[in-house]
Design a protein that fits this description.
mainly alpha, 2 strands
Length: about 100
């Protein structure tokens, strides 16, 4: 007697959205930016100085991160502060750090 397993795949929309998120994490510069935003809000200038990149290059990467829903922005006067979008992103970072620290 054979028991058949029902195999299912995510929808095309779910697959595309997931791939975009993994692509964002898969870029070294974007990963550095996400790491900096772990637990704090920063401006483009603060991020650019820390990772030694131009403000323009950082802004471009932040645009991609905002489009994938990983980063949010909030204006405070003349400054725009960037942060991780929500608790899900924070949990992903915590799990990745735990995973790479396992022996």
């Amino acid at each position: 007697m054979t028991i058949e397993k029902k195999l299912t795949l995510p929808t095309e929309e779910e697959t595309n959205a997931s791939v975009q998120i993994f692509k964002a994490f898969g870029n070294e510069t974007r990963y550095k930016i996400l790491s900096l935003l772990f637990g704090q809000k920063l401006t483009v200038n603060e991020i650019a100085q820390t990772i030694a990149m131009t403000q323009s290059a950082v802004s471009h990467q932040l645009k991609i991160l905002r489009q994938t829903g990983l980063v949010s922005s909030k204006r405070d006067g003349q400054h725009v502060y960037y942060a991780l979008a929500d608790q899900h992103i924070i949990m992903i970072f915590k799990q990745v750090k735990e995973h790479i620290s396992e022996d």
